[in-house]
Write a structure and sequence with these properties.
- GO terms for molecular function: DNA binding; single-stranded DNA endodeoxyribonuclease activity.
- Its EC number is 3.1.-.-.
- Keywords: Cytoplasm, DNA-binding, Endonuclease, Hydrolase, Nuclease.
- It is an enzyme of class 3 (hydrolase).
- By secondary structure, the chain is α+β, with helices and mostly antiparallel strands.
- The protein folds into 2 domains: about 5-150, Distorted Sandwich (Protein Yojf, Chain: A); about 160-265, Trna Endonuclease, Chain: A, domain 1 (3-Layer(aba) Sandwich), CATH 3.40.1350.
- It is about 20% helix and about 40% strand.
- It is built from 5 helices and 14 strands.
- The protein has helices at about 25-40, 105, 160-170, 215-235, 250-260; strands at about 5-10, 15-20, 40-55, 60-70, 75-80, 90, 95-100, 120-130, 135-150, 180-190, 190-200, 205-210, 240-245, 265.
- Strands 1, 2, 3, 4, 5, 6, 7, 8 and 9 form a 9-stranded antiparallel beta sheet that branches.
- Helix 4 runs parallel beside helix 5 (about 250-260).
- It is elongated and about 80 Å long.
- The chain starts with a strand and ends in a 6-residue tail after the last strand.
């Protein structure tokens, strides 16, 4: 049974267009997918399929119900009903193609546990030339095909980053403590780059490690390595303080801070 539907929106510079087929015949699905690829639409396909990758390595997924997304920039993603990451994918720059074949054997499929190898298949491929690799998805049944054509000219604006946290301290050093003077950012040490380096009101060196989220023992260990590295770099009598700045720390991290003589300042990346 084939149930086509189409809708559009006049908002924005380019009217959005959505074309959907539910439970289409494989030949009809092929035509809809080919049209979407030609129009540089975002194409999604949900159905029963096997998935094969050949390139720098090789992999095979037996037959299962999966959601495949073909993006106009050449990226392709295969999702199951679990997790946020695709089970297989290709990066932008690939060439998408679709074809209808009379049998799974013709498509090059390994027989799945429930699929008849003599049944027709719809085959999606995303090919990349450098390096040479191919993602092939072979459908025995398709439940839905959609093609979405629209526009998105905006760029992602990140907030709440470690850079936001750094800027807050540089613009208002007293957020760390009264009398703190920032001297450098990304100061190089043998253990890595220190987020903010400065001096306190007594002239002691201060190493500031920034984290935008609640942190655990790893962040404390990282700060300890920076402090140890700077103490070796500076003169023998140098007194180097280490301050971890984050919204919060775990109980174990708090105990380690005390054990190593390090300090903690609770601060959010943004003032809101």
């Amino acid at each position: 049974m084939t149930s086509p539907s189409s809708s559009s929106s006049s908002s924005g510079a380019t009217p959005a267009r959505v074309d959907t087929l539910e439970h289409p015949a494989l030949a009809d699905a092929r035509d809809a997918i080919a049209d979407g690829i030609d129009r540089e639409a975002l194409v999604t396909v949900f159905g029963r399929c096997t998935v094969d990758y050949d390139g720098r390595a090789s992999s095979h997924l037996e037959s299962g119900d999966r959601h495949v997304m073909l993006k106009p920039d050449g990226a392709s993603l295969v999702h199951t009903d679990e997790g946020q990451q695709p089970v297989n994918w290709q990066p932008p720059g690939c060439e998408h193609s679709v074809r209808y074949v009379e049998s799974g054997a013709e498509a090059g499929d390994d027989d799945g546990p429930t699929d008849d190898p003599s049944t027709p298949r719809l085959v999606l491929e995303s090919d990349r030339s450098t390096p040479d690799e191919r993602l092939r998805v072979s459908f025995s049944r398709i439940f839905q095909v959609s093609a979405f054509a629209g526009s998105d000219e905006t760029e992602l604006a990140l907030s709440g980053t470690e850079e936001d946290l750094r800027q807050r301290i540089l613009e208002e050093p007293s957020l760390l403590e009264s009398g703190f003077t920032p001297l450098a950012t990304e100061r190089s040490t043998p253990a890595g780059a220190v987020d903010v380096y400065g001096e306190d009101s007594a002239g002691r060196a201060v190493v500031v490690e920034l984290k935008r989220r609640r942190v655990g023992p790893d962040a404390v260990s990282q700060l300890r390595r920076y402090v140890d590295a700077l103490e070796r770099d500076l003169h023998a009598d140098a007194d180097v303080r280490g301050v971890l700045v984050a919204p919060s720390v775990t109980d174990r991290a708090d105990r380690l801070l005390v054990e190593h003589g390090l300090e903690f300042v609770s601060l959010e990346p943004t003032a809101d």
